[in-house]
Amino acid sequence: MRDVARLAGVGVATVDRVINQRAPVRPATSQRVLQAAQELGFRRTGLIERRVAAQQRHVRFGFLLQSQASPFYRAMGLALRQQVQHAVSGQGSVVIEFMEDFTPRKVADRLHAMAQEVDVIGIVAADHPVIHEAVEQVVGAGVPVFTLVSDLSTSARTAYVGIDNRKMGRMAAWSMANLSRPAGKVGLVLGSHRYVCQEECEASFRSYLREHAPQLQVLETLVSLEDVELARKATLEMLLCYPDLVGVYVAGGGVEGVLEALREAAVPGLTTVCHDLTDITRRALLEGLASVVLSHPREAMAQQAVERMARCVLGGRALPAQPLPFHTYTIANV
């Protein structure tokens, strides 16, 4: 392997990755390794030939994301597209569909339709039996399904790519406990409990404050249904009903509406924690409307998703996706 690496102008670890598929290698590099192995008569040349042949297969990636109106999912779509272009060096294509109708039957229909067009699918969806059934059928037909951002509670899905939502919820609670006024009520806004990521964030947020800051009373959760205007109205009503409100945690959709309500009400001294750094949440940090933004690492998520999806299609050893660390932003580091 050292001789092959030297002749190919790469490291021994790269030769190992080509042979054992421990991590993706650019096709041009794999081809150099193959040529060196053939010239030297390396005993595993036949295996390298098979690896390179598999790598040259055209992989069709498909992604079903949430609404294109969301700045986060627009940016996520761009990151996935760029990663496909980089990772497979022209040997892959990508179909990205932004869903506007999140009803389970509609999502299931789109999943089945996309499975007819691509080799592997990444999806962001609510946790629902109808969607579980669709995932099981698609995977059973030979198209792997990866969950992105929010997991599904079906063992049929191939792997989950995202963060540890329990840690994110606890970090949000830590921020609330340490930045807000000593005692009072805390508002909690979700898009829907059907999204595992939001449910996990809510549960861990409540658990941490129950243990470490019992003087902060978390109110009944407001569900925005991912609707910006509904989130705005619900937040304004909450601000009116609870003058002793000390903070708000937005653990799901509708953050634009929550921030607009905070801007309208102009209540001083509130601690606001929300998710994902976008132009909207960056502005909120700079205005003082948001105190902390906990953000998914979009580029790292896209890289991990595409690498593992490609490996799965090309017949490499399936590696479980590891939870990625999230980013923490305040006005001090945006």
Please give a structural write-up.
Strands 6, 7, 8, 9, 10, 11 and 12 form a 7-stranded mixed beta sheet that branches. A 5-stranded parallel beta sheet has the order 2-1-3-4-5, with helices on both faces. The protein folds into 3 domains: 2-55, 434 Repressor (Amino-terminal Domain), CATH 1.10.260; 59-162 and 298-324, Rossmann fold (3-Layer(aba) Sandwich); 165-295, Rossmann fold, CATH 3.40.50.2300. The protein has helices at 2-8, 12-20, 27-40, 45-55, 71-87, 104-115, 129-140, 165-179, 196-212, 228-241, 255-265, 279-287, 298-313, and strands spanning 59-65, 92-98, 120-123, 145-148, 159-161, 184-190, 216-218, 222-223, 245-250, 271-275, 292-295, 327-329. It has 13 helices and 12 strands. It is 49% helix and 16% strand. With 334 residues, the chain is an alpha/beta fold. The model has no long low-confidence stretch (mean pLDDT 92). It is elongated, with a radius of gyration of 23 Å. Helix 5 links the parallel strand 1 and strand 2. Helix 8 crosses helix 9 (196-212).
Strand content: 15-25%
Number of helices in the DSSP assignment: 13
- CATH 2nd-level architecture of the largest domain: 3-Layer(aba) Sandwich
Structural class: alpha/beta
Q: How far apart are the first and last residues' alpha carbons, in Å? A: 46 Å
Mean of all residue-level pLDDT scores: 92
Helical fraction equals 40-55%
Instruction: Name the overall outline.
Output: elongated
Q: Mind telling me the C-alpha Rg?
A: 23 Å
Number of strands: 12
User: Could you name the CATH class of the largest domain?
Assistant: Alpha Beta
Domain count, please report it. Answer: 3
Low-confidence runs (pLDDT<50, min 5 residues)? none
CATH superfamily of the largest domain: Response regulator
Topology as a string of helices (H) and strands (E): HHHHEHEHEHEEHEHEEHEHEHEHE
The multimeric state of the shown protein is: single chain
